[in-house]
Specification:
The protein is α/β, with parallel strands linked by helices. It contains 9 helices and 20 strands. A 9-stranded mixed beta sheet has the order 14-13-12-11-10-9-8-7-20. Strands 1-6-5 form a 3-stranded antiparallel beta sheet, with no helix packed on it. Strands 2-3-4 form a 3-stranded antiparallel beta sheet, with no helix packed on it. α2 crosses α3. It starts with a strand and ends in a 5-residue tail after the last strand.
């Protein structure tokens, strides 16, 4: 049975339709119709969220898998999503969840309080809204965030950043950290492969930088022949440096054939290494390779002296050269410089393991 939760971001049009105002798609719906995301629907002259309180499953992951390398390193994060998506990415790596139209696959009940309680009991420092975009289940995510904050648990949004301004303001006011998927740096890519708009994602990034205290990092899935040219990566990293500054970490991740893009090869490691070097050359202080075995490209270096601060092998920490003393946390042992990020204690030791978690109704 669907959980139809009343929402706020919509308005009635003169022609009788109701417009959803959560994302720039602005779906205009007649009675009984669903938006492109499939989970926001018109019912009784309002927009309801049909997946409130229901999840596609829970796992405990390393925070580095989100990926977040500068937010509570080494700690476990309780991760979950629901169903649906407001983008149509042909290369979706979580298509079984984001493209799902089978509500019976969702867990019957997972209240915000139950999720917060599970995070505390399992020793997680944070809860991540991931696997599909939390933009489309923002009311559920916000209520979970409120319950988590009441228990001292941080919240993380893993998102494509495709949100309308008013909804974006409320959503991110409840988030402590985010990873934003900057899929490419051309409107052609966004239009042809995602049915969305690059400019709206850039607006979200600028908003996060200038209007919030949310710690955020950027991921770019590099797809051979689509967004892997040196010129595009150069333009993208120059834009990040100019508009967001040097301290926003960028993750260049390897693509594998999936969903409707099975004709492309996996991303060669060398392409990711080159992308990372372009970012560094353009002033980005923290650039990473992902989904490949590349310890130098996964590690964090001091922006002042160049020493290794956090060594990583996949999602597992191998070196920790940060000190904690007095009011200054996370300083380089060698030179004392403080890297950008959220470091509030010694590194966690969760490692690379992924543990499924079942939350039972109370």
């Amino acid at each position: 049975m669907e959980s139809n939760f009343p929402t706020t971001y919509w308005h009635k049009l003169d022609d009788g339709r109701v417009q959803c105002d959560v994302c720039p798609r602005f779906c205009k719906l007649n009675e009984g119709q669903r938006g492109l995301c499939f989970v926001r629907a018109r019912q009784h002259d309002q927009i309801v969220l049909t997946t409130y309180g229901r999840s596609s499953g829970f796992c405990i992951d390393p925070i580095e898998k989100k990926p977040l390398n500068h937010f509570l390193p080494g700690t476990p994060v309780l991760s979950f999503g629901t169903a649906g998506c407001n983008l149509t990415c042909k290369f979706c790596q979580n298509w079984d969840i984001s493209k799902s139209r089978e509500f019976d696959k969702l867990q019957a009940e997972a209240s915000p309080e139950m999720i917060a309680d599970a995070a505390v009991k399992s020793g997680c420092r944070s809860v991540a809204f991931t696997y599909n975009d939390p933009v489309i289940f923002m009311e559920y995510a916000i209520d979970v965030a409120k319950a988590c904050h009441a228990r001292g648990i941080k919240t993380v949004a893993v998102t494509a950043g495709y949100m309308a301004a008013e909804a974006r303001r409320e959503f991110f006011s409840h988030m402590d950290a985010a990873n934003v998927d900057l899929k490419a740096f051309t409107q052609d890519f966004y239009h042809r492969l995602c049915s969305s708009e690059l400019d709206k994602v850039l607006e979200t990034l600028v908003y996060l930088k200038n209007e919030t205290d949310v710690w955020f990092e950027i991921t770019n899935l590099i797809i051979p022949g689509e967004n892997d040219s040196d010129a595009e990566i150069d333009a993208k990293t120059r834009w990040v440096f100019k508009n967001l500054g040097p301290d926003v970490p960028m993750h260049f991740s390897a693509f594998h054939p999936d969903w409707k893009m099975l004709d492309k090869p996996r991303t060669p490691k060398e392409v990711l290494v080159t992308a990372r070097q372009i970012a560094l050359n353009n002033g980005i202080r923290y650039a990473y390779t992902g989904n490949v075995h590349d310890k130098p490209g996964a590690s964090t270096y001091c922006p002042a002296c160049g020493d290794v601060l956090i060594g990583r092998d996949w999602y597992e920490l191998s070196t920790w050269n940060l000190t904690f003393a007095g009011n200054y946390t996370g300083n380089c042992k060698k030179c004392g410089a403080k890297p950008a990020g959220v470091f509030d204690g010694p590194a966690g030791d969760w490692g690379r393991k992924r543990v499924p978690l079942r939350i039972e109704p109370q």
